[in-house]
Amino acid sequence: MDQHSRTDRDTVFEQRTTLRLRHAAALTSLLEERTDLRGVHALADHFDDAVRWSA
Fold it and tell me: What's the predicted TM-score (pTM) here?
């Protein structure tokens, strides 16, 4: 039972990681295409900058 739970947790972790990366890529892509959106939402700007600095 513990092994099964570990597998489920690993699967959920992998799904969340994939989703997080996909959202970061989509946000960065959107802000590259729509430069007029920079400065509209501080949190979006923060994550866009963080992704750019980590690249």
Answer: 0.59
Centroid of chain to Cα 25: 7
pLDDT 10s digits, 18-53? 998 898 888 888 888 988 888 898 888 887 788 777
Residue with tokens 């972790």: 13
Q: CB of 50 within 8 A of CB of 30? A: no
End-to-end CA separation in angstroms for the chain? 40
Cβ atoms < 10 Å from Cβ of 48: 20
- Domain residue ranges in the chain: 2-54
